[in-house]
Write the structure tokens for this entry.
Amino acid sequence: MADPFNPKSGPKGATRRTAVGLLLGAPLLGACAGVQQTLTNTFGTGNSAQPGPAGPAQQPLAVGTGQVKVGLILPLSASGNAGIAAQSMKNAAEMALAEFQNPNIQLLIKDDAGSAQGAQQGTQQALDEGSEIILGPLFALSVPATAQLTRSRNISVIAFSTDSSVAGRGVYLLSFLPESDVNRIVDYAASTGKKSFAAMLPENAYGNVVEAAFKQAVARKGGRVVAFEKYGADRSGAARRIATALSGADALFLADDGDAVVATADALTAAGANLRNIQLLGTGLWDNPRVFASASLQGGLYAAPDPSGFRAFAGRYRAKYGNEPVRTATLAYDAVALVAALARTQGGQRFSQDVLTNPSGFAGIDGLFRFRTDGSNDRGLAVMRVASGGGQSVAGSPKSFGA
């Protein structure tokens, strides 16, 4: 995921408790309790932070005076939205350091200019300067270049890409993965008695990932897919075929970004589908004013982080920097807060696989998250309902990943 939600501020002391206590408190130390977006930095389709031609290279930057060195790789000099996103994530990383009480880390911030070659150069510099872990890069195309260097040194990477294919072998993704949205919304629908599912998805890389996750999730819950269509630029044919099959379904899954999913709903209505007679389901990409304004999508359910966390974060960010954070800024904040907390509590094994993949997970700005051993992640997501005034919570995000 990647782009805007909203905010609220809090006193510095409360923020410190969030960073330390929540991030690590009970989950890691205490045992058995175990983030609207545009399509993201990975699939190459529609992310507002696509890399563009690079601007002037940024100078190397070190922030903090701690003994534990941490590399942070961002496309700071990339043009357009990529550079804007990178600057916002850099600000959030520095904000995490400022709000974490006496962190024992030093951030070595490197500019990859949105390219694989830049990521390789930045990673090499960070490693040569003693980094024990690398945060970033943002784009999928840059992650393998970083991983090629870190794996030879047995150093972990927490990257921000949403492309699960670049994860694994020491690369962990702290991002909003489409699979998490799909699993949460299908599980919730099944818990309310939905058994027969239809789906209409875009014919692109994002749609392919969502398709695989959707079919697996439905099968896992004992449901069945009674109708399934993919569409390109022209939705009308797929809409007509789905519309004739909806009588056998009790839920319809639509996964696309705000503008596109509204167009899909309109195409279905034009094809004769009565969307009020079926439960509409979607992903966090639905968290979009266009969706909330769509008459066809009212009452639809989607999975997303509880927005209250981002609202609080964005309020503090706005007070500090005078502008709004991009939606992915919380990823950089959580990554820095996590490594600061691990550096404080976990000794020499602080960034090992066993520590990073603790099944109880961690609590961040956008709620619970945990890394899987394959490098992907699980997130504790809320279920939201589309309403004209915005998303309304139907089921809150979980407080733990289970006993």
About this structure: Confidence is low (pLDDT under 50) at residues 1-49. The longest strand covers residues 224-231. The chain has two domains: 12-175+309-371, 178-304+385-395.
